[in-house]
Amino acid sequence: MQPARATCFAFVAASVLPALCVGIGDPLTGNRAADTMLVTFFIMYYFSAVATVLFGVPAYFAMRKFRAIRWWSATLVGIFAGVVMRRGVALPGGYASFEDLWNFGMLGAAAGFLFWAVWRLGHGPDAPGPK
Q1: Among 28, 60, 62, 64, which Cα is nearest to 44's?
Q2: Which of 6, 56, 90, 121 is most buried (CB neighbours < 10 A)?
Q3: Where does the chain cross the membrane (predicted)?
Q4: HSE (CB half, 13 Å, CA atoms) of 131?
């Protein structure tokens, strides 16, 4: 896979994973009908894509500059993005439980790790960052 294509696909995959997990695992109405899960997926995809653009893209460019794109750095950025986005979404109601923050942090970690894994497909196994 070409490096630029792998990077773009990695950003898309990192946005899709949390939305898919929430859409399937915890639909908005609690009803596990396909249409409810699909609507939940699209609503969550919006927030996931916003997190990717606000946190993932700038972090990618910063890490690329220092050739520091590693599995652990991408995972840490994902945790940060997940927790901040969950807290941000809770602002109208003013409450985000520790369990919610944990769950969204772990979704972010999985998304960050997935980003790194897909990115790595286009950059080779020994690439610490783009050359």
Answers
A1: 28
A2: 56
A3: 37-62, 69-89, 101-121
A4: 6
Give, in degrees to the nearest 5, the angle at Cα 52 between 123 and 75.
60
Burial class (CB within 10 angstroms; exposed 0-12, middle 13-18, buried 19+) of 131: exposed
Q: Which amino acid is located at 85 in the chain?
A: M
Could you list the pLDDT tens digit for every one of the 131 residues in the chain?
799 999 999 999 999 999 999 999 887 777 888 888 999 999 999 999 999 999 999 999 999 999 999 999 999 999 999 999 988 876 666 678 899 899 999 999 999 999 999 999 998 776 765 55
Looking at residue 55, the DSSP 8-state letter turns out to be I
Which two structure tokens, joined as six digits, stand for 27? Answer: 């639909």
Helix axes 98-123 and 3-25, enclosed angle (nearest 10): 150
Residue count (the chain): 131
Candidates 57, 58, 111, 59; CA nearest to 82 is: 111
Q: Any idea which residue has 């929430």 for tokens?
A: 22
pTM over 0.85? The answer is yes
